[in-house]
Give the backbone structure.
Amino acid sequence: MRLDKFLVEAGVGSRTEVKQLLKKKQVFVNGKLETSPKTQIDEMDKIVCQGQNLSYEKFVYYMLNKPKGVISATEDDHHKTVLDLLDKTAWDKEVFPVGRLDIDTHGLLLLTNNGKLAHAMLSPKKHVDKLYRAKVAGVMTDEDVKAFADGIELKDFTCQPAQLDIIKADEESNTSLVEIVIKEGKFHQVKRMVLACGKEVTDLQRLSMGPLQLDDELALGEWRRLSPAELESLQKFGVEL
């Protein structure tokens, strides 16, 4: 692997920034000063940049508790994006959100630069469960539970069978708290499914996606790298991690 590619993937900086560091004689390979970006290295070499020992990371994985008002994109001219909430390494590694949450939906979002994993997790053939908690204007009923299980027919497509669990239904306030598991991720799907039952989602939070569960200790807008156990749980998708 070229030295400049390694430095970029180690999160040191962009290719332009890495070239500047090499010119300024800030990089050592096995104790020897290196200034050429074309220098070939391997995983056994010891790389030091600005006094820091570097380890190679091809892929990185972030769990974000996405807040409302932030869009699931890498750039936007009008709104803050989820990438704006992450660190410099995320930018240098060119991470992107795996799927999307609507601007007014909050909760679990995975971001990575592993395109094969993202494709596997989003593939309809994989049937990856996504768990949402929704506050609803209106009282959800057993009829709605059955409608979800049968597959709700919307104007442009029929939803796959989904699971609706009524956590609380209050006739006095005409509100409900429900949890919904879907295997798809169509645009506004959960909101449209609830609307098809004559009710309206007033707040929507994603709690899990596949084996990943939202960390209760992450406040809105906070993130962390995936733990070794969480990474291990993603091996079920059969791609290089």
User: Anything to note?
Assistant: The mean pLDDT is 94. The CA atoms of residues 134 and 204 lie 5 Å apart. The radius of gyration is 22 Å.
